[in-house]
Amino acid sequence: MSKPTVRALAVCGGTPAFPAPLHVGGPNVGDRRRLHERLDALLDRRWLTNRGPLVQELEHALTQYLGVRHCVAVCNATVGLEVAARALALRGEVIVPAYTFVAPAHALRWLGLEPIFCDVDPVTHTIDAKKAAALVTPRTSAVLGVHLWGRPCDVDALQALARDAHLRLLFDAAHAFASASNGTFVGHFGDLEVFSFHATKFVNAFEGGAVATNSDELAERLRLMINFGFAGYDRVVELGTNAKMSEMSAAMGLTSLEQVDAFLEVNARNYQAYARELQSLPALRLMTFDPGDRVNLQYIVVDVARGAALSRDELVEVLWAEGVRARRYFHPGCHRMEPYARDPRWRTAQLGVTEALCERVMTLPTGTSVSADAVTTICDLLRTALEHATEVRRALAARRRG
Ligand SMILES: *Cc1c(COP(=O)(O)O)cnc(C)c1O
């Protein structure tokens, strides 16, 4: 495809480049024949949920893949975090990053715990361990790190902080399946880690998640808690809830997991294509990763420089008009969302890095529904828009006037 002229941009009246929208987190669908076989088998068995053979098989496959002692399959990562917080008997305050999806903060607050928002590192976007240490009070019971964008947190620093301050340490690993830090898979860090297999995550079970831990005791408690505290027929030994994964979800999870290498390859190919194309656009900085980390690359994270010819929001608008559903993750920051924003502490808090990232970061589509050619087209659109910023801005203003 030849490079679009400014007139060809959809915001300037041209035809959208992608009639079928491209999404950030467009689902990876694995081998549907394998999925159908599993669904037929589960219907024949009439064992639809309650730790059926597919859930057991998925849990086993996950522990094998990660080399971790236990993986407890759950209905989704948010409820998984809630159960995890209960299993760890958290109370009072829990330190969480402000720059992330709102689920971890909400999961804590849902239980009556108080999320204490910590700023993140400007380069890695993960929780700043030094700033977290400064937030510890006598009421703090835990630190919850998020391996944002699939990039492992500074686990050594957080482990040292947890040890020294006698805190529990858990991780939201929703983005980080198959990621590793210095040769150790995410799933081994802290007391436990919670993965998400939501449809938008690169390995998916429609809805689903898993709690990974190397503690036998925690695994046992988690298993009781996700099933109403049942320790056998008619025997309830704990307060519990229903956080079980269904067999249908496990069927999809297994089918997805079989393709994990293929998904990783596509993500790496698309990341390389973005890196190549964006090299000539210094205003758009693609996130890079430490050579010691293995990252699943399920997010294409671009920092739009403050002095760029078009702002992040303007570029997102240009792309949406083309059918490219770029996202402003995680605008405006968890501390600026309700119910936290109404708390005077967060209304006046200065979380400078989080707030700057919320203004500058956009994520671009990748995954198996995005071809390398599509990446080139997306980058050509960005290049054209930036080269004709004045005209684009005029067109955007006209659109807003309707
Ligand atoms: C997706 C996501 C979650 C929630 O996962 P669900 O399985 O949808 O509940 C939690 N944390 C982060 C960082 C996420 O991106």
SSE topology:
Blueprint: E1 22-23, H1 32-45, H2 53-66, E2 70-74, H3 77-87, E3 93-97, H4 103-110, E4 114-118, H5 129-134, E5 140-146, H6 155-165, E6 168-172, E7 180-181, E8 184-185, E9 192-196, E10 209-213, H7 216-225, H8 247-258, H9 260-278, E11 284-286, E12 293-294, E13 300-304, H10 312-321, E14 324-325, H11 344-347, H12 352-360, E15 361-364, H13 372-387, H14 389-401
Bound molecules: pyridoxal-5'-phosphate (PLP).
What does this structure look like?
By secondary structure, the protein is an alpha/beta fold. It has two domains: 32-258, Type I PLP-dependent aspartate aminotransferase-like (Major domain) (Aspartate Aminotransferase, domain 2), CATH 3.40.640; 260-401, Aspartate Aminotransferase, domain 1, CATH 3.90.1150. The chain is built from 14 helices and 15 strands. The protein has helices at 32-45, 53-66, 77-87, 103-110, 129-134, 155-165, 216-225, 247-258, 260-278, 312-321, 344-347, 352-360, 372-387, 389-401; strands at residues 22-23, 70-74, 93-97, 114-118, 140-146, 168-172, 180-181, 184-185, 192-196, 209-213, 284-286, 293-294, 300-304, 324-325, 361-364. α3 packs across α4. The longest helix has 19 residues, at 260-278. The radius of gyration is 22 Å and the shape is globular. The two termini are 31 Å apart. Bound molecules: pyridoxal-5'-phosphate (PLP). Pyridoxal-5'-phosphate is lined by residues 76-78, 100-101, 103-104, 146, 172, 174-175, 196, 198, 209. The site of pyridoxal-5'-phosphate (PLP) has 14 residues, from α3 and α4.
